[in-house]
Design brief:
Layout lengths: L2 E5 L6 E4 L9 E5 L2 E2 L3 E7 L8 E8 L8 E6 L17 H28 L1 H4 L4 H24 L3 H22 L6 E5 L9 E5 L4 E13 L3 E8 L10 E6 L10 E6 L5 E8 L4 E12 L1
Antiparallel strand pairs: 1-7, 2-6, 3-4, 3-7, 5-6, 8-9, 9-10, 10-15, 11-14, 12-15, 13-14
Length: about 290
């Protein structure tokens, strides 16, 4: 099976693939191993008389997948005929070539599946000889004898049990005293060019801090406004989070004659509305930060 995989980044909506296919139903798109929705397939046409109609294409999502989403694009060709030739009708060479090429592509996919199956189960065919198996059993026996000697050297096991119980109780008391008093980061991302300079810190308690830099070009006419959507790299549990957005485009943006308003807040994005006053202003850089559960 022809297949390609990607990781989302919260801003990219288009994901390309370069394997040929015959119709959109041949392309299977999943997100985190579940059938994806909210996307369009745009094929790269090979021409009207091509033996295979599309040489590849791209999947365009309505909303950009987040940094935690794994996107897979695969080709799945049903094992069936696509043309029913009639005995009294002249055979079109283009149609015949397309039909034969479809069957060839199906055979290629089945060969790929067989190769993958062969790789997965190759170890089963590599059976150990009796001599090798007996040698492994002997080595395990020697390890058991060595561990038994170490246990005997410990002396009275009751004393060891008492020490372990005492230490376990002390650890339990420490856990009780520190419950709800500490929190720590369990997941994070450092801003780089590859992730569009977004970052986040997710804590054990569920608290999330994240932010980034939006770059682009928005020109706002005097006494008007324009919007841009910021997509979060980590989805929030609700919309009750705090948002800070700052225009740091520079002197040419007309600071302080530019006002920012946050609206359209969802668990995965928010909208920054930018208003210009007194003159036409151009915005090309916004810094933003979000914190909440």
């Amino acid at each position: 099976m022809q297949k390609v995989s990607y990781m989302g980044n919260g801003s990219t909506t288009e994901f390309a693939f370069n394997f040929p296919y015959f119709e959109n139903s041949n392309i299977i798109v999943t997100k985190n191993n579940v059938t994806a929705t909210g996307y369009t397939i745009v094929g790269t046409s090979a021409g009207a008389d091509a033996d295979i109609p599309y040489t590849g294409g791209k999947v365009v999502f309505d909303v950009a997948p987040t940094a935690l989403d794994c996107i897979s694009i695969a080709r799945q060709l049903p094992l069936t005929r696509i043309v029913d030739y009639q005995p009294t009708v002249k055979i079109d060479p283009c149609v015949l070539n397309q039909d034969l090429n479809y069957l060839m592509e199906v055979i290629k996919d089945r060969q790929d599946e067989l190769d993958e199956l062969s790789t997965q189960y190759a170890e089963i065919a590599d059976k150990e000889s009796t001599t090798t198996l007996l040698a492994r059993i002997s080595a395990i026996h020697d390890e058991i004898v060595a561990v038994s000697a170490q246990i005997a050297a410990l002396g009275d096991i009751s004393t060891l049990r008492t020490d372990v119980t005492t230490n376990t109780n002390n650890i339990s008391i420490l856990d009780t005293r520190t419950t709800n008093l500490t929190d720590y980061v369990i997941m994070s991302q450092t801003p780089t060019a590859e992730n569009n300079y977004t970052w986040y810190r997710k804590y054990k308690s569920g608290w999330i801090e994240q932010g980034g830099i939006w770059t682009g070009t928005i020109t706002i006419q005097s006494d008007n406004s324009a919007n841009t959507t910021i997509y979060l790299p980590v989805q929030m549990s609700n919309t009750n989070y705090c948002v800070n957005a700052v225009n740091n485009s520079g002197a040419n943006s007309g600071i302080p004659w530019v006002m920012l308003y946050v609206c359209g807040v969802t668990v995965s994005s928010f909208i920054v509305s930018i208003g210009a006053y007194g003159n036409t202003r151009t915005i090309n850089r916004l810094s933003w930060q979000v914190s909440g559960m």
